[in-house]
Design goal:
alpha+beta, Pnp Oxidase, Chain A, globular
Length: about 160
Amino acid sequence: MYIPRHFSVTEQEEIFSFLDANAFGQLISVTDNRPTSSHLPFLLSADRRFLHCHLARQNSHWQTLENQQVLVTFQGPHDYISPSWYQAPGVPTWNYQALHIYGRCRVYEEPGAIATVVEALSRHYESGRDQPWEPKYGDAMLKAIVGVEIEIEELQC
């Protein structure tokens, strides 16, 4: 991602705070020489070294992810900037917040590991509700998805 130096964010706390607030992203990889994207909720590991998500088993995207370097993108607020707002002549632009994470994928199918991620995602996204739903997933549901772990190699924010 092109980031002008004066817009670059490198402070880890600020980056991970942004991720926590904007954790629905796009998992992008290459399948048969073609870019492929899946839109998913992600969860950052407690040690901040991994992103976790899961895909429907019917989504063939997971079948090509093992050991592939992927890009995960997250978008925050954005807006058009009109040159009419400038005191001096200028051009239109777009201000935005974004985070790109590059990392290596590991796909797993163990029901216990999948249940751990799915329950953590559910607890995370239910936590702001007045009456949070308590996750309970049966074997059939867990067999219908696969887990994905992405080891974070590079952050661009």
